[in-house]
Q: What sequence folds into this?
């Protein structure tokens, strides 16, 4: 009787041990890893941003501004008459509308991979545009003029896209904190770009001084200081302050430049974390 009871106790002990081992194995297989926030080695990040350009400059912008200032000066001094559309007389001593050159919205998308706990390699695609509002220089037939025509400034300003581009970039970000909800970083980027630019040649064409649109290519450099904040391991918000310089070339000019700086705000997604936690 004692032998039977002893044998039964051994079987029960073995069954309990087996059940504990099986439960531990199943629990370890179903338990999810601890959630990790922020930037880390092996993370794969996608961000989309948009914003405003606070500063715009460079030789291409200066050229357009100089052209507008020249027309305004000639009109003010009476060297060149001012007329409405269709060469209708324009009231004397009536000021011309102010000309403007301003940058439009910027758009940017990046894909970044964590090479180390602090350094990320990224590729990017971004766009930027510049809008200009100003007067045109025209001409009308004039038999009393030696040239057979007389120049004039058209009083009604026109608004057009002075410049727009598409940038394809490659760069590095340095992330000051790793595995943290707050992710401050600094980034450097080089890019190639395609652009379309309005370019005034000053050449008369059928009593009109046209502003041609010229396509071209260029190279650019960009520096950014930013902050990512992760609401969840998979999703967060992103803010960037940036500055950029672009060197341009087209069939109309050998070299012009555009500089711009501003801020962008958007969203960031950690693709490596999606479905893991």
A:
């Amino acid at each position: 009787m004692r032998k039977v009871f002893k044998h039964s106790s051994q079987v029960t002990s073995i069954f309990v041990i087996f059940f504990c081992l099986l439960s531990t194995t199943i629990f370890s297989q179903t338990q999810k890893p601890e959630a990790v926030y922020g930037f880390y080695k092996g993370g794969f990040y996608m961000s989309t941003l948009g914003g405003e350009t606070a500063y715009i400059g460079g030789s291409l912008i200066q050229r357009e501004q100089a052209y507008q200032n020249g027309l305004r000066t000639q009109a003010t001094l009476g060297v060149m008459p001012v007329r409405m559309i269709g060469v209708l007389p324009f009231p004397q001593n009536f000021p011309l509308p102010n000309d403007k050159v301003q940058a439009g919205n910027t758009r940017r998308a990046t894909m970044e991979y964590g090479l180390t706990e602090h350094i990320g390699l990224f590729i990017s695609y971004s766009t930027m545009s510049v809008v200009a509002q100003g007067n045109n220089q025209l001409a009308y037939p004039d038999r009393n003029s030696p040239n057979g025509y007389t120049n004039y400034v058209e009083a009604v300003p026109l608004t057009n896209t002075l410049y727009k581009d598409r940038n394809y970039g490659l760069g590095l970000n340095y992330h000051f904190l790793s595995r943290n909800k707050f992710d401050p970083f600094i980034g450097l980027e080089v890019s190639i770009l395609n652009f379309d630019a309005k370019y005034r040649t000053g050449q008369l064409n059928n009593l009109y001084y046209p502003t041609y649109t010229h396509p071209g290519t260029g190279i650019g450099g960009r520096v950014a200081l930013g902050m990512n904040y992760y609401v969840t391991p998979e999703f967060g918000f992103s803010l960037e302050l940036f500055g950029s310089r672009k060197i341009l070339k087209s069939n109309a000019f050998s070299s012009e430049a555009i500089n711009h700086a501003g801020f962008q705000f958007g969203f960031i997604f950690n693709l490596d974390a999606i479905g893991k936690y």
